[in-house]
Amino acid sequence: MISAIVDYEFLQNAFASGLIIGLVAPALGLFIVVRRLALIADALSHVALAGIAGSLFLSQNVTAFAALNPLYLGIGSSVAGSLLIDRLRELYKSYEELAIPIIMSGGIALGAIFISLAQGFSTDLVGYLFGSVSAVGREDLYTILAVAVITILFIVLTYKELFSMSFDPKYSRAQGISSRALNIGFMVVTALVVAGSMRIVGILLVSSLMTIPVAAAMQIAKGFRQAMLYAAVFGELSVLGGLFAAFYLDLAPGGTIVVISITILLLVLGGKKLAASRSAARNEEVETGEL
Amino acid sequence: MAEPLIELEDVSYRYGDTSALEQIFLTVEKGEFWAVIGPNGSGKSTLIKLILGLIRPLSGQIRLFGQDSSDFREKEKIGYVSQKSNAFNRAFPATVREVVRSGLVKKTGLFRRYPADANEKVDSALAAVGMEDFTERSIGDLSGGQQQRVFIARALISDPELLVLDEPTVGIDRKHMQSFYNMLGRLNREKGIAIVLVTHDVDTVSELVTHVACVNRSIHFHGPHEEYSRQEDRIRSEWYGHAVRRVHHGRKAADA
Ligand SMILES: Nc1ncnc2c1ncn2[C@@H]1O[C@H](COP(=O)(O)OP(=O)(O)O)[C@@H](O)[C@H]1O
Ligand SMILES: [Mg+2]
């Protein structure tokens, strides 16, 4: 494997991108999960689908778009979608969740239209839907790297405020933290990570990379920082393991990555249960004095 | 020397067509301990939200620490414990330390890291509420009363001069309630922190507070605790009776 990575540029691209995404998606995902916004990540990925499909369609029909990397329109539409969701949530203040199905179905609808208009990009499209080991180019890698730098800077610079806002929005407003500006920033960064991750895990499975490692981490972490650390570790294990399996078994990496992350979640749940029953048994021994 | 921390002058507020507060006058001075009482829906939380600047008055003026509330930026001078602060998601992964430290967010400023002495501040804020043994515990594993103490510590960590609490004992059993209120009394006496406490437990706090304000859309009484006790029967009968009249309208506590 190592020698294959050294030999093939496409593998370097895929594994480097995977390493970046495996860290960034679960780290941001922790905020998404505790703020109960997991569905938003899902909606944004479907908006990204519209951008990707639109770009693939245009590249067939308009020469100016022929050489354009679909990732850019994917990112653009996902960011636009995130701003739209924010507007809709303001508009329907007491029905905030209404924004999600509207944007999600809008994304799928546009995607469906572009897909049926165009003929013969099914292999490209499958790569975007379920991820790909072989299709990640240098340009994709650099774009993903840029997304990661922006995301990490955002998290590091606003960590205090993000934590406070996630834990207790009312209190953080009473402290005078501008939740609106922070929220918009957060949504845009989420859109960037969603679009950046889809090259590796695929549009349909992006949100699971942001949520499943977090779900496992929250089972065992005591604090927020610890949860972020565990989530990143589980994310990396899933992505690297998933890419490895996908390469050797010739499978879509989105599928293998998510299956591994669910396996990790199950192991964590099982391990936790085992530890609990052991300590319960130990307590019983102490109580009955049979030590 | 009179040093008003909160001044409300002829303040009114409405939600859409629902009038929540009308012509409120209230002055809270340094070191005072106010109990704000009133039936459900009487506007107590609205009063608190106005004081905190979470909502703006429809008419009238609010001054905090002598400044107009819309210009007031030193939010760290006011510690806040909300009505439902322990209604957060119990599975939220955060240690007690992380929660208490977040009380320094405003004081630290955007884009900056917590100061180097943040950990010591967390320890002493937790010691002030008797929770120093729980620093590294997960917030979700604590009882309701313990969580509420942690939220007080979060409010205390920025060294506030004023503590505002909206029904902080909801969900705490009676046994722990008394010790919780006693702790507030200690903070008030020993650290000189002014307190505005919205509560239903008038009898439990009567020994501790210096002033009482009775709210029911308008303020029906406000003044020193002794005077409230003297007039309690009358206030209560007027208050819960059907013919609700306003008394002591616009009378300042400081005059008493
Ligand atoms: N966000 C809101 N929108 C509309 N009406 C509200 C809102 N918050 C409170 N009210 C109304 O304002 C009145 C005062 O409410 P509140 O200040 O919460 O009372 P209290 O805290 O004393 O129970 C009530 O009639 C309540 O129904
Ligand atoms: Mg209330």
UniProtKB/TrEMBL annotation, chain A:
> How does it sit in the bilayer?
Multi-pass membrane protein
Keywords of the record: Membrane, Transmembrane, Transmembrane helix, Transport
Cited Pfam families: ABC-3
Q: Which Gene3D superfamilies match?
A: ABC transporter involved in vitamin B12 uptake, BtuC
Is Transport among the key words of this record? yes
Q: Does the keyword Magnesium apply?
A: no
Family listed: Belongs to the ABC-3 integral membrane protein family.
Q: Name the chain's protein.
A: Zinc transport system permease protein
Species the sequence originates in: Bhargavaea beijingensis
From TrEMBL, chain B:
Task: Give all residue intervals belonging to the ABC transporter domain.
Answer: 6-241
Which UniProt keywords are listed? ATP-binding, Nucleotide-binding, Transport
Q: Which SMART domains match?
A: AAA (SM00382)
Tell me the Pfam families matching this sequence. ABC_tran
Entry superkingdom: Bacteria
Q: Name one GO molecular function term.
A: ATP hydrolysis activity
Q: Which InterPro entries match?
A: AAA+_ATPase, ABC_transporter-like_ATP-bd, ABC_transporter-like_CS, Metal_Ion_Import_ABC, P-loop_NTPase
Record carries keyword Ligase: no
The similarity comment for this entry is: Belongs to the ABC transporter superfamily.
Q: What is this protein called?
A: Metal ABC transporter ATP-binding protein
UniProt organism field: Bhargavaea beijingensis
